[in-house]
Design brief:
By secondary structure, this protein is an alpha/beta fold. The chain has 8 helices and 16 strands. β12 and β13 form a beta hairpin. α1 runs parallel beside α2 and α5 runs parallel beside α6. The two termini are about 25 Å apart.
Length: about 325
């Protein structure tokens, strides 16, 4: 039985998701203690509980502590099975974080899977549907499996109500890939999503974002999308060669539209100026697939506490020996 302290590092839900994914993948039972102890609302929230139940469903696991607010969970997985699954977070909690929990074991399951996950598709502090589809999953597909994500309906905080469908064709094993270099040129695009909000909000966000990126806003898109409630996101894509990075910011109370557009564009520019092919958020997502492949490497910016904690949890389950090398330009190579 592996024991993981859920309060280590930043003490967030990532420890729970990584532990459950790797428990299913390896068949090793895990006890999670002090779950999210450092957060304002400790214990399992709806999205964490949905991820826990999803992990149990794909692996015929027995679980203790599967309830809202639980700060200790004991998870004993069985055999992972591909199949058709449907999960609802039941709030605006992130559907992407549920996918993050079950995807690794299903990438090498004995049969294909189809998933329908409902909840938030565009949430602060979690991977948006755009990021998953255009940035993360292409890297996963390069390792051998085939994963396709189709957005059915947008879901913004606080109403939620979004949905996406995921089709997974597994591989017998993941193959190593490297992402150490990038093209010298980047092509930027900006897309503003609005649901039940006035058009001028998107116009002001677009003005601000394109000014930072040096784009003509007339070449970019402002879209009214179908969602259960009001919502707004600004999505910036940076494509360099075969790879795309996605950055997203969200409209919220007491934040002027100009600030929302400017902040996400500035985040994108910082990534490009760093010289790193892989952004901080994508680096976090790639750790498990890299470890599953048993090789490969990528170059990213300085490591966050979040990433360092994730490296440690992966090591606990898979026993990998990470190569973490700081470069003269301030970037970091992570490999095996």
């Amino acid at each position: 039985m592996i024991r993981i302290d859920g309060s280590q590092g930043e003490g967030g839900g990532q420890i729970v998701r990584t532990s459950l994914a790797l428990s299913c993948l390896t068949g090793q039972p895990v006890t999670l203690t002090r779950v999210r102890a450092g957060r304002k609302k400790p214990g399992l929230l709806r999205q964490h509980l949905c991820g826990l139940k999803a992990a149990a469903a794909i692996s015929d696991a027995t679980v203790d502590g599967a309830e809202l607010g639980s700060t200790e969970v004991v998870f004993r997985p069985g055999q992972v099975r591909g199949g058709s699954y449907e999960w609802a977070v039941g709030s605006a909690g992130s559907a992407g974080l549920v996918l993050q929990t079950v995807l690794p074991p299903l990438l090498v399951a004995d049969s294909p899977s189809t998933l329908s996950i409902s909840g938030g598709t565009h949430n602060p502090a979690s991977p948006s549907a755009d990021f998953l589809a255009d940035s993360f999953l292409p890297m996963v597909n390069a390792m051998g499996p085939r994963v396709d994500l189709t957005l059915g309906r947008h879901g913004f905080y606080p109403a939620g109500g979004g949905r996406y469908d995921v089709a997974i064709t597994p591989a017998k094993a993941l193959v190593p890939v490297e992402r150490l270099h990038r093209d010298d040129d980047v092509q930027w695009t900006v897309r503003v999503l609005l649901s039940n909000l006035k058009q001028h909000i998107g116009f002001r966000e677009m003005q601000s974002a394109t000014a930072v990126l040096g784009l003509d806003m007339r070449d970019q898109r402002i879209e009214q999308v179908d969602a259960a409630g009001p919502g707004n996101a600004v999505v910036v894509r940076g494509t360099a060669g075969a790879f795309t990075e996605v950055f997203t910011s969200f409209g919220r109370k007491k934040h002027r539209a100009e600030r929302v557009g400017r902040e996400v564009a500035e985040e994108a520019v910082r990534w490009w100026a760093s010289g790193a092919p892989v952004s901080e958020h994508l680096a976090d997502q790639l750790l498990i697939p890299l470890a599953m492949a048993g090789g490969g490497a990528f170059r990213t910016g300085p490591l966050s506490s979040h990433t360092r904690t994730n490296l440690d949890v992966v090591t606990r389950f898979l026993g990998v020996r990470w190569r973490v090398e700081e470069q003269d330009d301030g970037t970091v190579v992570i490999g095996l």
